[in-house]
Design brief:
Blueprint: E1 2-7, H1 11-20, E2 27-30, E3 47-48, H2 59-77, E4 82-83, E5 87-91, H3 97-109, E6 116-119, H4 120-126, E7 136-140, E8 144-146, H5 148-161, E9 165-167, E10 172-178, E11 181-186, E12 189-198, H6 204-209, E13 218-228, E14 239-242, E15 252-255, E16 261-264, E17 268-269, H7 280-290, E18 302-313, E19 320-323, E20 329-333, H8 339-358, H9 381-390, E21 397-399, E22 404-405, H10 406-414, H11 422-429, H12 442-453
Helix pairs in contact: 1-5, 1-8, 2-8, 10-11, 10-12
Length: 478
């Protein structure tokens, strides 16, 4: 019998697990995929929003502003790449100034720190490559950029070292109430729990329906992105938004924490919850829209495109974060934008509900820190040489685009909740994320995985289950 079972190890589930690990609880995370951060959390804008665009009085407004503040401490403790680079919402005409002022007023009501409206000269002074057509802009200096998948993995790792259990490839098929606890029917058999937390992202409506009388419908909203190669000198330093619409915050142009430029997303409601396709016409529209924000947008530097799905609830504008009436079953349903920004505060809110139910003692052995990841290319020459002396694997460059060493890949596999797939290696080390997109390093990474995980090349997958890269070997006589 577990005290708490959390369904889903995206940014919300992992954050809840990490917060609960501060207490003496027998907690378990069930994840349907091979590793953490394989759903919505792996592919989004990576923005820690300031909180001006959430309707005052909503859960989005409350959790966004609080979560934004919490990232300052958490990013240092957990070694999460995070920068407070600030954001600009660009206005291109006098007629749209009222919309900008509405965002400003919302920001003031939501208690967003230090926001202001800048005129054209002020905007161009802090962001020279902004379009000459800019008229005014809302400036939010507390907005930040983060690596969403690295943040999710950091929360999960820290939860794990502090005692939370994780079961992967463990989809939940049904949940039944039995007296004072719940029985979860999973891929790995039955699991019993006193409290269940539904953080299943795109599938949170289905999980909720097992227990809650109120039914929700998740409509996946697909956003397509373009990513550029790194810039030695940032092309833009702030996150640049255009005025939002009913379909979201619109197409942005933002630096990433790894010095690239992210452009997107599009916004399209679809049916299939696992449809991550991209479309040439949509991506061209994204480029054209983004070009309105930035002069001479460096489209020749684009190295890849991708898409992510947001969990939008049909006929609901706000998050659903609730304890189901009469149950010890807690929903986190429809956590779309600003879900990444809100994750730490949602985790605290849900954890506080659980603490009221179970009244556990504090975990005296709780360690809030995550062991730093050795990033070879960021070391000075002396430290590089010392590291190679201690471990020769750090002297073997595997990914030339990102200067990733064999030592880093081995560390990614051996870390708590270590990588088991090529995408898992990529998200922990960036091997395969550079200009050639894995064209040169994939085979070498696979060799290291085979050695470290004692696997055949036929067993290596891109992201788990049937996503195998090698289906067989040619016969000797062919």
């Amino acid at each position: 019998m577990f005290d708490v079972v959390i369904i889903g190890s995206g940014i919300i589930g992992a954050s809840i697990a990490q917060y609960l690990s501060k207490f003496c609880l027998n907690a378990l995370v069930l994840e349907a995929e091979e590793e953490a951060s394989q759903g919505t959390s792996k592919a989004n804008s990576g923005i820690v929003h300031a909180g001006y665009d959430a309707e005052p009085g909503t859960l989005k407004a409350r959790f966004n502003v609080m979560g934004n503040e919490m990232y300052s401490k958490l990013s240092k403790e957990l070694n999460i790449p995070f920068k407070r680079n600030g954001a600009l919402v660009l206005c291109f005409s006098k007629e749209d100034v009222k919309k900008l002022e509405k965002l400003y007023d919302q920001g003031i009501k939501n208690k967003v720190p230090s926001i202001s409206i800048l005129d054209k000269s002020e905007v161009k002074n802090i962001e020279p490559n902004v379009s000459d057509n800019v008229y005014k802009a809302l400036y939010a200096p507390t907005s930040g950029i983060i690596s969403p998948y690295e943040a999710t993995l950091a929360f999960a790792e820290n939860a794990y070292i502090n005692g939370v259990k994780f079961w992967f490839n463990c989809k939940v098929h049904n949940i039944f109430k039995k007296e004072d606890h719940y029985i979860l029917n999973t891929e790995k058999g039955e699991v019993s729990a006193k409290v269940v937390v539904n953080a299943a992202g795109l599938f949170s409506d289905e999980i909720s329906s097992f227990i809650s009388k109120k039914k929700y419908t998740i409509v996946p909203r697909r956003g397509e992105y373009l990513l550029t190669d790194k810039f030695e000198i940032p092309y833009v330093s702030k996150t640049l938004f255009q005025l939002p619409s009913s379909m979201g915050k619109g197409v942005l142009v933002t630096p990433t924490v790894h010095d690239g430029l992210l452009i997107g997303p599009s916004s399209e409601d679809i049916i299939d919850k696992i449809d991550f396709d991209t479309n040439r016409e949509i991506l061209e529209k994204v480029m054209n829209t983004a070009s309105r924000s930035v002069q001479d947008l460096p489209l020749s530097n684009i190295i890849t495109s991708f898409s992510g799905l947001r969990a939008n609830i049909k006929n609901e504008e706000d998050f659903v974060v609730e304890k189901v009436e009469g149950e010890n079953f807690i929903n986190a349903v429809g956590i779309n934008s600003p879900g990444l920004s809100s994750a730490p505060s949602i985790a605290k809110y849900i954890s506080d509900i659980i603490l009221d139910i179970l009244s556990p003692k504090e975990n005296a052995n709780f360690n809030p820190y995550r062991n730093p990841i050795k990033i070879f290319k960021e070391l000075n020459l002396e430290d590089k040489n010392e590291l190679i002396k201690a471990n020769k694997a750090y002297g073997h460059i595997v990914c030339r685009c990102e200067t990733i060493t064999e030592g880093e890949i081995v560390d990614a596999i051996r870390r708590p909740l270590g990588a088991k797939t090529l995408d898992g290696i990529k998200r922990r080390t960036r091997a395969g994320m550079g200009r050639c997109q894995g064209g040169f390093c994939t085979s070498r990474v696979m060799e290291i995985m085979c050695r470290e995980l004692n696997l055949s090349p036929l067993e290596i997958t891109k992201f788990g289950r049937e996503s195998k890269l090698i289906m067989g070997f040619p016969k000797d006589n062919l």
